[in-house]
Every structure is written in structure tokens, then in C-alpha cells.
Amino acid sequence: MTIDKTCASAAAAVADIPSGASLAVGGFGLCGIPMQLIDALLESGVGDLSVVSNNCGVDDWGLGLLLAAHRIRKMTSSYVGENKEFERQFLTGELELELTPQGTLAEKLRAGGSGIAAFFTQTGVGTQVAEGGLPRRYRPDGTVAVASPPKPVQRFDVDGVEKEFVLEEAIRTDFSLVHAEVADRHGNLVFNKAARNFSPPAAMAGRVCIAQVERLVEPGELDPDAIHLPGVYVDRIVVVGPDIEKRIERRTVSVKE
After folding, report:
1. Spatial CA neighbour of 109 closest among 26, 232, 205
2. What is the pLDDT of residues 35-76, one digit of tens each?
3. How many Cβ atoms sit within 10 Å of the Cβ of residue 140?
């Protein structure tokens, strides 16, 4: 039996994503984001999306395009400081935000893709992450409409010392969108250096994973030890080529002396 997960276009790959869907999206800042899939989703017209991603792009790129078009209802993120429209929508009650520590977010995605329902971590113990009360949605008058609930906290013995741990539930989404450098037709993926970032756990968390890739090879061409994400997690592949635009979120240069 031949397994070929390639799709003809980004539009075809995202065509069955409905309004109201939940999405896990790879990327860190603007590094390794699935821009062509985001563009296709924007063109499809779907909205009311619940998106899980480290951040929400910037005002004119990445997930920021969906946000500016009011297609996103809720973001689950760990960093939101580079998008002024995000700030405006959140503070005026147009956008719900579930702010999650970065490592916890990665593990919630990985756990979801691994069939683990929840896990205990020390991250967030003694803060509003565990105790509840973090604003998730504001009212237009600036008061809190929805706040985070308290989470279960339990004590465990660690090397003879009892420590508190907070229970974090795994994340499972309807779809996931990621960008990889290389794929074979079976869906095995290889990411490029730092562009790997959140993409493997985001891909794992989606019930249907769609990957845009720069280069496609035949099955057997990839060294098994070089594969970062096995094809069992990937459902669709779109080849976008190596010449796609890759923006830098914030360019920093030094002054030559």
C-alpha cells in the first residue's frame, strides 16, 4: 500500500477547517511559522477560532493577520507582547486569553499528542496560574468578565522533601498547522534548527496535522535518526518551496566601532 499525504495546495489542505475549530500552530515569534497555511485559512473566511500557539505573530504577519480580521475568538499563549492589536482586543473584551507558562504550554501540547490527560508541575505554584484569578476576558468597561479558575495542587515527596505541584491538563485540538524544512510523502518531518521550536508538540496535539514543507523527498531518503517528527502524527503535506518570505520579528544590529 502506498501512503502519499501530499495535498495540491494550501487552500485544499485547510478546506475542511470549519469556523469554531481549535488549532495548535507551530512557531516562536515569526520563526518557523506556517505562513502559507495561515494565509489560506484567512482566505477561506473561517472565524471564531480558538488558537494555541506560543504567541500571536505581529500586527501584519503570522497569526496577527487572522487576529486583525477578527477571526480568532481565543488565544492560549505564553507571550503576547509584540502585537498592539492583540493588546487592544484583549483589553476591550474582544479576545479571550489563556496565558500559560512557556514550558507548561509545550508540555500540555506534547501530553495531548501522547495520550496523557494531565500532569503535575511545580511551575506556577504559589501564583495566579495555580490559585486562579488571572483575567481571561475583560468587559468593555475594563472590569474582568472571565477569570482563570483555581487548579488542583498536591504535595509529593521529592528527594525526601515534600513539594507542591499544580495539575495541568493536556491540550488536544481539532487541527494543527506547522512548517518544516523537509518531508517525505509518508509525512516524516525534519525541521531547520531553531525553526523546530514549538512545532513538534503542536503537530502532535492536533487530531488532524497539516504541515507545509520547503522540500519533499521520497520515502527512504531521510535518515531515520534525522527525523524530528514521525509521519504517524502528520495527515497532510503541502509543498511551498524554499523561496517563501521569512520575516525577522525584531532586527538587532551592533554599531561598528
Report:
1. 205
2. 999 999 999 999 999 999 999 999 999 999 999 999 999 999
3. 10
Backbone angles phi, psi at 247, to 5 degrees: -90, 155
The reported pLDDT for the residue numbered 2 is: 65
| CA neighbor of 82 nearest in space, from 251, 249, 255 | 249
Give the global pTM: 0.94
Q: Could you identify the residue written with the cell 507582547?
A: 81
* Three-state helix/strand/coil letters over the chain: CCCCCECCCHHHHCCCCCCCCEEEECCECCECCCHHHHHHHHHHCCCCEEEECCCCCECCECHHHHHHCCCEEEEEECCCCCCHHHHHHHHCCCCEEEECCHHHHHHHHHHHHHCCCEEEECCCCCCHHHHCCCEEEECCCCCEEEECCCCCEEEEEECCEEEEEEEEECCCEEEEEEEEEEEECCCCEECCHHHHCCHHHHHHHEEEEEEEEEEEECCCCCCHHHCCECHHHCCEEEECCCCCCCCCCCCCCCCCC
Strand order in the sheet with 153-158: 118-121, 161-169, 153-158
Nearest to 16 by CA among 44, 54, 48: 44
